[in-house]
Specification:
The complex is a heterodimer.
Chain A lengths: L1 H9 L2 H23 L6 H9 L1 H32 E2 L3 H7 L8 H12 L4 H9 L14 H25 L3 H9 L4 H12 L1 H17 L2 H6 L4 H11 L3 H26 L17 E2 L2 H37 L2 H34 L3 H9 L8 H25 L12 H27 L2 H8 L4 H30 L2 H6 L7 H10 L3 H29 L1
Parallel strand pairs in A: 1-2
Helix pairs in contact in A: 2-14, 2-16, 2-18, 4-8, 4-11, 6-8, 6-15, 8-11, 9-10, 11-14, 13-14, 15-24, 16-17, 16-19, 16-21, 18-19, 19-21, 20-21, 21-24, 23-24
Chain B lengths: L2 H27 L5 H38 L5 E6 L4 H14 L2 E6 L2 H11 L7 E5 L1 H9 L9 H6 L12 E13 L23 E2 L6 H14 L1 H14 L8 H10 L4 E5 H8 L4 H8 L1 E4 L9 E9 L6 H12 L1 H9 L4 E2 L8 H6 L10 H5 L1 H11 L3
Parallel strand pairs in B: 1-2, 1-3, 5-6
Antiparallel strand pairs in B: 3-8, 4-6, 4-7, 4-8, 4-9
Helix pairs in contact in B: 1-2, 7-8, 7-16, 10-11
Classes of the chains: A mainly alpha, B alpha/beta.
Chain lengths: 545, 392
């Protein structure tokens, strides 16, 4: 009797729902994990002998350098924008998020287009100044080149998360540092950096996971990493088992990264007991220093947004007549539609699970909060296999039930959007969840406890207290997921229903078939839609303050 | 099954999911009392909304298909296409096919590899009737996986030369491409060129560019060399090319042409149609590149130039096999072949179709005399060979 009571205490609605969502996400992970220990075949020996070493070296080089570079750029920009007033600061505050709207593979196409032999730089040098250059200096298809591309288009993850955190910090913390005689650099290193450690690390981890999962950039550049290796082994060698083993190693790598993240974040639990925090008031920086900060922002913004966009627009002008048809509008609609639906579902699940892990101590909630983000670490292709297998099972199940009821025919879910959206949810849960978890972390539990103390149930508290406080984080999570899905490739390519394409698949298909000019219009629209949502995200979060 | 029936069943499933969700919640909900129902309803409503939207979408598609069918032929039905091609001219051809036969063409575009894996996973539940992809290696892989079925069609045998068809008529070539040596006209005299094998000679050290070994065109080229020269010689060839490379393999086929014009090498191994595409490019710089390179068909005195195809097969679990055959027959016909091959500057397989001016300008050439099925048979060996010799 007592046991049942205990059990009921643990098994409340939040726990049950959380467990349900977790199991959806954990199944594909388990499949991969188990496969790591199955017997190796001869292909695996071949991979170990000739390839594995290079996969590991290249992958580690990419994540270490990209991680470091995005941390440097993202954090410094976030600090400057929140603490100082300088020319065009209000624009940069959201403009610096915009590079996120450009998928890295499209950035790679654009930069290769600019730098290669027929690109604008070399063509101008050759045709106008009659200068021929050494191709090696303009070769972006190298590991440093890939780090450059990833850094430019992924640093906003660190920037957004760190900036969001710094903006909500109490001004007194930094003012005290200043009063105690710290210079601006000192304040940054002794107060800003340690305080925002968790936010920075959270952002860098997102960047690293994106790099690990990237297929477009590395395959275009001819760099062998785990993601190209998985596809090569699966499609080329027709060896799903060995491909899953590679995916398993990749997952192991991700788990190490996630554990490191936890360690670096530490046990810290700063949250505020009062709703009236006086936030940081930016200082006016005048003269040359102000313009220096401005130039720094401008340089980053130019490389990460203006330059590639100009190239894309130029290409689009060459080809728009052939591409801009009625079908194109359908593409835009499709893209926005699936992204919206998925983002809404992910936000709802994140709220439920986030609320559960926050209110309950112990091992289970901790594990759950980590596991739910694992989908982000599985290669899209592996998720695709798991999901398609699952839906065939579901379809068969429905079919047999209908047969029992003497109804003819079946319902085919597997070629519908339901399947695609399910896969998106597994894949991008982490993005939405991290944003909302961070929101929960910030508000702590005191408001909730107060509400519970006044006799309201957890659920009432959830809707009346938590959600209103969290609306910034909710909106942030929504936008991040939305933008990610607009750009998503492997799942959409693999699971698309009949007669269904998105902007991303159209852009990829053209670019992949060496028709990069034709790919530009779809790319621009991805950037436009994502850019607009980022702008509104910024407007909203400003108002929210 | 009628449309309304389908919609009804879809709602049924939505309702079932709703019930499942609700049941799941009830177990835990007791503790929290009535308030929790709010959350449950919200969550369920959400899920339902998503399902319903999908259902509507499906219904809308259905409607469209039905309407158009009714307009032409009540019983013509449809053909579902998995294809890795995506040229605008293809869509026009599909429309033309629908107009002539009343058969509706539904399309999923994707990478050849992905579509094969998708069909593998879908098994007998697949919706695909016709599979179209580039490269005989891919088509062979599909056949090996049991995804295609044998087709008896006199028309296809007539339209398509035997060596461009599968031995068991599981797949049929529809366009033909040649993988050749492209050279910088300023630095290379075509008289210096002879065969693929000659590129491994010391005089070509540091002068050859080619893309990575992940690429199917390279895998098929090596597969064909395994067939005509034997494994040992083929591996020596791959090693020789690696030794003579002017840079690490990178980029796509267009990039190889640019590299030799830029002086990063003198000869490139690439497919002819990319030169055609660059000549038609909107970017005048790319046109200049294409104009300053020459196309050389190697092995004319010996084993012939490597050719490959893009082609189609009827899926093993097709629900509309007759429509599928009709569709492939249509694509192999004289009326369709021209635009189907020209869309990509490829050679038509139907010998009655005249070549475009560009193809004629490159001239006739001797092809490797092998049945293309061997490209698939030697594929795995070729991949391993590339790894052993360190061709990235």
């Amino acid at each position: 009797m007592r046991l049942i009571k205990r059990l009921r205490q643990y098994l409340n609605i939040w726990a049950v729902l959380s467990l349900f969502f977790i199991s959806i996400i954990i199944i594909p992970n388990l499949l991969i994990g188990v496969n790591l220990f199955t017997e190796a075949n001869e292909n695996w020996q071949h991979i170990k002998d000739y390839l594995l070493q290079e996969y590991i070296i290249n992958t580690v080089l990419l994540i270490v350098f990209t991680g470091a570079a995005t941390m440097l750029i993202g954090t410094s920009l976030a600090w400057l924008v929140t603490n100082y007033r300088f020319p065009l600061k209000n624009f940069f505050a959201w403009g610096l998020i915009l590079p996120l709207a450009i998928p890295a593979y499209i950035g790679a196409y654009a930069y290769h287009g600019i730098l290669n032999y027929t690109g604008v730089i070399q063509a101008t040098l050759r045709n106008t100044f009659d200068v021929s250059v050494n191709q090696a200096y303009f070769n972006i298809m190298t590991i440093p080149g890939a780090v450059f591309i990833f850094t430019l288009f992924l640093f906003p993850y660190v920037y957004v998360i760190t900036k969001g955190f710094l903006e909500k910090q109490s001004a007194s913390l930094f003012e005290n540092a200043r009063l105690l005689g710290s210079g601006p650099f000192n304040t940054f290193f002794s107060a800003g950096l340690p305080l925002s450690r968790a936010a920075i690390v959270g952002g860098v981890v997102l960047v690293v996971l994106e790099v690990l999962n990237d297929y477009g950039v590395v395959s275009y550049f001819g760099i062998q990493t785990f993601s190209t290796a998985i596809f090569r082994t699966w499609y080329g060698m027709k060896d799903l088992d060995s491909a899953m083993k590679l995916a398993g190693i990749l997952m192991f790598l991700v788990i190490i990264i996630l554990v490191l993240e936890r360690l670096i974040r530490g046990q810290r639990n700063y949250s505020f007991s009062s709703a009236n925090i006086r936030t940081v008031e930016p200082q006016q920086v005048k003269g040359i220093k102000g313009w220096l900060i401005f130039s720094y922002c401008l340089v980053i913004f130019s490389f990460a947004f203006i330059i590639p966009m100009v190239q894309l627009i130029y290409w689009a002008m060459l080809t728009y007549e052939d591409i801009l048809t009625r079908e194109f509008i359908t593409l835009v609609f499709n893209s926005v539609f699936v992204a919206t639906v998925t983002a809404v579902i992910i936000v709802c699940i994140s709220l439920i699970v986030g609320n559960y892990t926050r209110l309950h101590k112990g091992l289970a909630p901790k594990i759950i909060s980590r596991v739910i983000t694992l989908g982000y670490s599985i290669p899209g292709a592996a998720i695709a296999i798991a999901v398609i297998t699952l839906f065939i099972f579901i379809d068969d199940f429905i079919f047999s039930i209908l047969s029992l009821l003497n109804l003819n025919g079946g319902i085919v879910l597997r070629t519908t959007l339901v399947m695609l959206i399910s896969a998106y949810i597994i894949r991008f849960m982490a993005v939405g969840y991290n944003a909302i978890e961070a929101g929960f972390e910030k508000i702590g539990t005191s408001f909730t406890e107060a509400s519970r103390g006044l006799g309201f149930s957890t659920v009432t508290t959830f809707f009346k207290v938590d959600i209103p406080i969290l609306r910034g984080a909710i909106f942030g999570g929504f936008i991040l997921v939305f933008v990610d899905i607009l750009k998503e490739l492997p799942l959409t390519l693999f699971l698309q229903p009949f007669n269904f394409s998105t902007l991303a698949t159209q852009a990829y298909r053209f670019a992949n078939d060496e028709m990069v000019h034709e790919a530009s219009l779809a790319s621009i629209l991805i950037v436009l839609v994502s850019g607009l949502s980022i702008y509104y995200f910024h407007r909203f979060s400003q108002k929210d303050l | 099954m009628s449309k309304s029936m389908k919609v009804f069943m879809f709602s049924l499933v939505a309702a079932m999911l709703l019930i499942i969700t609700a049941c799941g919640n009830n177990e835990g909900a007791e503790d929290n009392g009535g308030a929790s129902e709010n959350a449950t309803e919200n969550e369920a409503a959400n899920e339902e909304a998503a399902n319903e939207e999908a259902a509507n979408e499906e219904a809308a598609n259905e409607e469209e298909a039905n309407e158009e069918n009714a307009a032409t032929d009540e019983d013509a039905g449809e053909v579902n296409l998995y294809t890795s091609r995506h040229y605008d001219t293809d869509r026009d051809l599909y429309d033309q096919f629908t107009e002539e036969t009343g058969i509706e063409v539904n399309v999923i575009e994707g990478g050849g590899d992905e579509l094969i894996e998708r069909m593998n996973i879908e098994g007998e539940n697949t919706e695909a009737d016709v599979f179209i992809t580039a490269d005989a290696g891919n088509l062979h892989a599909a056949k090996e996986d049991g995804l295609l079925q044998e087709v008896e069609s006199e028309l296809l045998s007539e339209n398509i030369p035997e060596k461009l068809r599968d031995e068991d008529n599981h797949w049929f070539g529809l366009t033909k491409r040649a993988r050749v040596i492209v050279y910088n006209e300023d630095t290379v005299d075509p008289d210096e060129l002879s065969t693929y094998e000659a590129l491994t000679e010391p005089e070509w050290e540091g002068r050859v560019t080619v893309r990575t070994s992940d690429n199917m065109y390279n895998i098929s080229l090596l597969s064909s060399l395994i067939e005509v020269n034997g494994e040992e010689e083929a591996e020596e060839w791959a090693q020789g090319i690696v030794d003579n490379m002017s840079r690490e393999p990178q980029g796509n086929d267009r990039d190889q042409a640019k590299a030799i014009v830029a002086g990063e090498g003198d000869v490139a191994i690439m497919n002819t149609y990319y030169i055609g595409r660059m000549l038609e490019s909107e970017d005048s710089e790319e046109q200049k590149v294409a104009e300053s390179v020459g196309v050389f068909f190697p092995n004319q005195e010996t084993t012939g130039t490597h050719v490959n195809i893009s082609g189609a097969g009827v899926t093993n679990h097709s629900q509309n096999p007759e429509n599928a055959v009709k569709f492939i027959e249509f694509l192999s016909s004289e009326e369709a072949q021209g635009s189907f091959a020209e869309a990509n500057n490829e050679y038509p397989v139907n010998e009655n179709v005249e070549w475009t001016e560009l193809l004629q300008s490159w001239g006739e050439f001797k092809e490797q005399d092998i049945n293309l099925s061997v490209l698939g048979e030697n594929q795995q060996e070729a991949i391993r060979m590339f790894d052993r010799v360190g061709w990235k």
